[in-house]
Amino acid sequence: MNMAKQKRVLITGITGFAGSHMAELMLAKKNYEVFGIARWRSDKKNLGSINGRVKLLEADLLDAHSLDKIILQTRPDYIFHLGAQSFVLASWASPALTLETNVVGTANLFEAVRKAGVNPIIQIACSSEEYGLVKKDEVPIKETNPLRPLSPYGVSKIALDYLGYQYFKSYGLKIVRTRGFNHTGPRRGEVFAESSFAKQVAEIEKGKRTPIIEVGNLNAVRDYTDVRDMVKGYYLAVTKGEPGEVYNICSGKGRKIKEVLSTLLKLSKVKNIKVQEDPARLRPSDVEVLIGDNNKFRRATGWKPAIPFQKTMEDLLEYWRKHA
User: In angstroms, what is the C-alpha Rg of the chain?
Assistant: First the structure.
C-alpha cells in the first residue's frame, strides 16, 4: 500500500503549556514527524508520556546559529512558533528580556528559515494583549481594531506580529498570524490567574495552606478558550488559513475573573474559602475588557471551540490536585 510521506512539524516552546498540547495533537494525527526546540535547562514534565515520541532538539531562540542548524536539519513543512516570554506581569519586571525573547527570537527564526531556503507554513502566536486599551464601542474586537498595548508584553507581540507580516511581504515566507485570546487548561503555568486559583484550591484541599485565596484584579473581563481547542485552531491556521493574514482565535464570550474564581470555588471540596487581594498580583495598567470576534477565522477554517468552560476548569483543578 502506498503510504503518504510523513510531514515534518517543528514546534518552538514545545516544553511549555501550549507547545506540549500542540505536540500531543500532532502526534495523535499519525502522519506527522514532530520535532521540538527546547533549551538544555527546560523542564520536560509537560511532555509526560509523549517525551520519547517527539524529537527534542537543543536550541535557544536567542542563539541564531543553533536555529540555523535545526532548520537545515529538520527542513520542516510546518512551524508552530509558540516559544515566548508569555507572562504579562513579568514583562514589567523584565521589559528588555521580554522584547528580546519575543522579537529578536522571532527574527532569528525567520532568518534561519530564509537562509535555509525551505518553505514551511509558519504559524506565529500573537496575542489579544496587542489590542490593550479597548473602548466600549469596540467590543467584540475585530482584527482591524486599533492596537493600543498596555504592557511591554503587548508591545513585544505587536512587533512579532508585524515582523511576520513584513517577512511575508519582503521574502514570501508563508506566515499566518494568530491572535490568541486567553487560553487555559491542564498544565497552565501557576503564575496565570485561573491556574493560580486552582493551585491554591488544591493546596487548601490538601491542608497545605489556610483557606484563603490570594487574588489580583477580579473585575477584568477575559475571553477564555480551552488550550486543546486553541491548538486545534493553530493547526487549522496552517492547513486552511491564508499566509499574510491575521486571525483572532477566541470563544467570543467574556467572563470576569471573579466568575472564573467562583467556578473553581464551587468545584472545591472545601467550603467557606476566603478571598484576599494581594497587591503584588496587580498590574501597573490592566486591560479591562478583552472579548474577541472570531468570525474571520471561523469563515476561513471552520474552527469553533468544542470544550465547555466548566470542563476546562474541572480539568485544570484536577491537574493541580495531582501536582500541587
Answer: 19
- Whole-model pTM over 0.90: yes
Domains and CATH numbers, the chain: 7-185+224-252+291-306 (3.40.50.720), 193-220+255-288+318-323 (3.90.25.10)
pLDDT in tens, the chain (324 residues): 445 789 999 999 999 999 999 999 999 998 999 999 998 788 899 999 999 999 999 999 999 999 999 999 999 999 999 999 988 888 989 999 999 999 999 999 999 999 999 999 999 999 999 999 999 999 999 999 999 999 999 999 999 999 999 999 999 999 999 999 999 999 999 999 999 999 999 999 999 999 999 999 999 999 999 999 999 999 999 999 999 999 999 999 999 999 999 999 999 999 999 999 998 887 777 778 999 999 999 999 999 999 999 999 999 999 999 998
